[in-house]
Design goal:
The protein folds into 2 domains: about 5-105, 2-Layer Sandwich (BirA Bifunctional Protein, domain 2); about 120-210, Alpha-Beta Plaits. It is built from 5 helices and 9 strands. The protein has helices spanning about 30-40, 80-85, 100-105, 135-145, 185-205; strands at about 5-10, 50-55, 60-70, 70-80, 95-100, 120-130, 150-160, 170-180, 210. A hairpin with a 2-residue loop joins strand 3 (about 60-70) and strand 4 (about 70-80). Helix 4 (about 135-145) crosses helix 5. The longest helix is centred in the C-terminal third of the chain and has 19 residues, at about 185-205. The protein starts with 5 loop residues before the first strand and ends with a strand.
Length: about 210
């Protein structure tokens, strides 16, 4: 019998204390993902190298799993409504479950660095409304098929599901990093790439912009 060591992270309620010039904001998936990614980076992991799998089970209504070499490093997301009900919890609770044994055993031995480009990268976001059956992996794959040269990174920073979106719908907030390593990108180039991405998502996934 072997008992695994895990690290649990929970967030709920408001992000900040309310004051006269700042309205309160509820904790959300985006906040949890930011904490999760930062912890992994502090340990020396490159978040971009993890395989992302979406999860929905008895524990999570929705969430993500970071995997590498067929091992799960962390699962995180919104705690399921049924589980919250069993503990008489009304509000949303976001939870990250780190497999600490795997994290410690697979710690990167050396940190890798690469030269910073002299030309700035450009960050653009899209909020996509899609069917629940659509996976982030499809969105990422289509993006790199659409733009092979200048698109450097595609990442998800929020997932939302709710009655307001419609039946069997969910929303992805996606970030795109675009960069030309040899010259500064012009607005027309960036707009062309983003418009192409939108057309691809509309055609292939039936996506709509939020």
């Amino acid at each position: 019998y072997y008992e695994e060591n895990h690290l649990a992270l929970f967030i709920t309620g408001n992000k900040d204390t309310a004051n006269w010039n700042v309205s309160t904001q509820k904790s959300d998936f985006y906040e949890l993902k930011a904490y999760t990614d930062q912890l992994l980076k502090n340990l020396g992991y490159s978040v971009e190298k993890f395989k992302l799998e979406e999860i929905a089970n008895d524990i999570f209504d929705y969430g993500l799993s970071y995997q590498l070499a067929n091992k799960t490093f962390v699962n995180f997301g919104l705690v399921s409504k049924s589980l919250r009900k069993s503990f008489d919890i009304d509000g949303d609770v976001f939870y990250a479950d780190f497999n600490w044994d795997i994290l410690m055993n697979k710690l990167p031995k050396t940190k890798q660095f690469q030269a910073i480009s002299k030309f700035p990268e450009v960050s653009r976001d899209l909020a996509l409304l899609v069917d629940k059956s659509v996976k982030f992996s499809q969105i990422k794959e289509l993006a790199f098929k659409s733009e092979r040269k200048l698109l450097k990174k595609v990442s998800i920073f929020d997932i939302y599901e709710g009655e307001k979106l419609g039946v069997d719908k969910k929303s992805y907030a996606i970030n795109f990093i675009i960069q030309d390593e040899f010259k500064t990108l012009k607005d027309k180039q960036i707009d062309k790439i983003m418009n192409n991405l939108i057309r691809v998502y509309e055609k292939e996934l039936g996506a709509k912009l939020r």
